[in-house]
Amino acid sequence: MEVVPLVRDALAEIGVRYLFSQDAATLLPFASRLFWAREVLERPSRWVWPRWIPTPARHFRTRQQVAFTDALRPIVRRRRSSGRLGDDMLGQMLQPSSRYGLLSEEAVLDTLPGITVATFETPSRAAGWILLDLARHPQAADRVAAEAALLPTDPATTTSTHLDSLHYTQALVREVLRLHPPSWLLVRRATRPTQLADYTIDAGSTVLVCPYTAHRDAREHREPDQFQPERWLEDPGSPTKPGAFLSFGTGPHGCEGAALAMTMLTLLTAHTAHRYHLSEPPGPQPSYQVTTFGGLATTGLHLRATPRN
What we know:
- By secondary structure, this protein is mostly helical.
- The protein has one domain (4-183, 215-307): CATH 1.10.630.10.
- It has 11 helices and 8 strands.
- It has helices spanning 4-20, 24-42, 56-82, 89-94, 105-136, 138-148, 160-164, 167-179, 211-214, 231-234, 258-275, and strands at residues 186-189, 194-196, 199-201, 206-209, 276-279, 289-291, 297-299, 304-307.
- The strands form 4 sheets. Strands 1-4 form a two-stranded antiparallel ribbon. It has a two-stranded antiparallel sheet with strand order 2-3. The chain has a two-stranded antiparallel sheet with strand order 5-8.
- A hairpin with a 2-residue loop joins β2 (194-196) and β3.
- α3 (56-82) crosses α5 (105-136).
- It starts with a helix and ends with a strand.
């Protein structure tokens, strides 16, 4: 069966519940349609249209973003008028801060569509590679399953203490992110003249940073092309030093949802390995295709899932 769409649906529900708790059921359908609108917009085309041309894909994305905002607006107003802001991400945004004061309604509505899709868009790409590696490395999957056996039967009762006990599982997730970073190309703009090795970068220059190649630099990672989750257990600090591990970006533009993404991916990995043996279907054709538009992803990934005893 093709697994990534199933995983994406599960991660979308988790992400939307994290952001909106009791209002998640109302917003989840709009979040899913907004995701597909973004996917349509990023599909490769024979033509590269200027940003100001209103193509059908851009119209579709705009309609879905407006629909999401229209569904969210009454929720924001209800929470503010009742004083029950909630203990989720939306509730935090509705509380005044010492630095910015009270965010306007439009600021909240403009920010949340992108955050909502981000909670499951990139993690879904990463999950495809994780599941593929669980299928290709059964001994590693068995080790993850043994750790996961200590988790509560009810996932809702999982705590940070349980999460911290999944040492090997977290190492496997980081190793997959090192080998297959979903955001394989980062774009940055130099704010001041900078000397980089023998090159002078002028202020205002656009700089492309490739985590995929950086993660396979033998100066930073021993046997960089090998799948070795143990490297994260031997020296957990070294592989994450600045500039060596870029799956979540780095510096002031690093991913603010890195902790949430790691939690989602770690628990997904643990529960999947605990419940199923994964394998690639036999045959001459590969079980997936690699795409790089929007992110490094496994398209059409098919795996067999056999329940563990």
